[in-house]
Amino acid sequence: MNTPRRLALLVAYDGREFHGFQRQPGFLTVQEELERAWSATSGETAVLHGSGRTDAGVHAWGQVVHFNTWSSLPAAKVKAALNSYLPDELVVRASAEVAPEFHARSSAVAKRYGYLLATGRSRPVLRRGLVAWEKREDLDLAAMRAAVPFLLGTHDFSAFAAAGRTTKTSVRTLSSIHVHPIRGGFGFLFQGDGFLYKMVRNLVGSLLEVGRRRRAPQWVGAVLASGDRRKAGPTAAAEGLYLWRVVYPQDPFRNLA
Amino acid sequence: MNTPRRLALLVAYDGREFHGFQRQPGFLTVQEELERAWSATSGETAVLHGSGRTDAGVHAWGQVVHFNTWSSLPAAKVKAALNSYLPDELVVRASAEVAPEFHARSSAVAKRYGYLLATGRSRPVLRRGLVAWEKREDLDLAAMRAAVPFLLGTHDFSAFAAAGRTTKTSVRTLSSIHVHPIRGGFGFLFQGDGFLYKMVRNLVGSLLEVGRRRRAPQWVGAVLASGDRRKAGPTAAAEGLYLWRVVYPQDPFRNLA
User: Fold this and answer.
1) Contact, A90 vs A69, CB < 8 A?
2) B107, B134, B149 — which closes off a domain?
3) What is the DSSP letter of A44?
């Protein structure tokens, strides 16, 4: 049989150590590290396709990549083999064989991003780089939650997109936003069918303006309707952001520990 | 009045970035960084006294230090002043004026150490350096808890002390050990009137041997009674260890946020 197998990987990484996911000459990227490890494992030169880019400083708990291989290494063993070649800041959590039609990006039906914010007057020294930091401890949770309904649904999210990446459309569907208090701060969880460049960080930045009581909850609706990036709140720091999960019609890793 | 005031600081740091707490020529230490920041703040050259050393790689959430000053800077403002000169991996959580008799080490009546262990087949990539890692997921919590009573109380803890530091006596009182499951691993909490060099890490190392079912719970009692370091389990990694709290008859920071 002269057809390659397709493998998918579930990958976590510490975004501080990489210039984002996507290969860039002269910079250390997640894609390049994975390709290098696969080459060391199999002797093959493969291009690994991710579910999407993450920017420099953005972490991932559940990035998904796929690639083709002629290697006969059992899919279940690919994880350990790759991990033996990967640096400490990048780990393959699971490996699985997938159908040849599976595509890490275009097969995805939704993505979940998490955002961690530490609040308080002291820098989060033991989680620095892993959480964003807001000095104010009195963020208004109820107000942030009241702003959420203005953002949910299918909209043109241009007002929350940074320039710099071309996409066919800036219409996306946000299916859920959860804001919950965590010890020493707040956690945000976003699920949508896709996200524009820096969209999650811009949404967090605007929700924080509401949390600081500088803006009323309905203000985020006005920003959204304006389509004007200059009306939104400042972009929240990359270090709080996690690509948490990529959702597929069938989870490639469903049967794995 | 020609007597200096005494100030105390509550300090947190990421142990990865320092060669321990105590000043060592040619190495970056917590003590040196704090003294440098105080010198920049006040123009004074002061010696800061810690509650005890922490080794390279060991973290602190609640290290306490004291020092004397002629500066008239209000104690409550010392925190922010120092933090403006400190690196991201070291933060003053609180500052307070204390009685001239207060001594960070000798006034302490107890210390609490925490130990964080991630378990599972994937490296804890998003908390690397902040937790220790054990591949086995099936550690026996009940067995580890059953071993605890053999360690509590007043004993000669020589079997759990590393060579390399001289202390008058190796008798210490361990008042509590808690082992609790946390998401993706286990947390250990130790309270005692003092701890020998590497004692917490050696206690964890031996409890883990019980958790792995390589030893029975009562084995830790036999190790303790032997006074023989070679009989104990391997020393657990520094990266999981946190100096959590130093307990004084009166908490110097009791009235502070």
Assistant:
1) no
2) B107
3) -
Q: What is the mean pLDDT of residues B176-183?
A: 95
Mean pLDDT across the stretch B118-126?
91
Question: Domain count of chain B?
Answer: 2
Q: Please compute Rg for chain B using Cα positions.
A: 19
List CB contacts (< 8 A) between A257 and chain B. Answer: 121
A83 touching B (Cβ < 8 Å): yes
For B66-78, what is each residue's pLDDT tens digit? Answer: 999 999 999 999 9
Q: Do A162 and A211 share a domain, yes or no?
A: yes
**Reported ipTM exceeds the 0.90 cut:** no
**CATH number for the domain harbouring residue B54:** 3.30.70.580
Annotated catalytic residue: which of B55, B140, B193, B251?
Answer: B55
Q: Mind listing the pLDDT tens digit for each residue in B42-86?
A: 999 999 999 998 888 899 999 999 999 999 999 999 999 999 999
SS3 label, residue A36: helix
A77, A107, A137 — which closes off a domain? A107
Length of chain A: 257
Q: Which chain B residue lies closest to A87 (C-alpha atoms)?
A: B125
CA angle B240, B245, B247 (to 5 degrees): 150
Contact between A14 and B126 using a beta-carbon 8 Å cutoff: yes
Q: Respond yes or no: is residue B55 known to be catalytic.
A: yes
Per-residue pLDDT at B167: 73
How many C-beta neighbours within 10 Å does residue B91 have?
A: 22
Q: What domain range is A30 assigned to?
A: 5-107
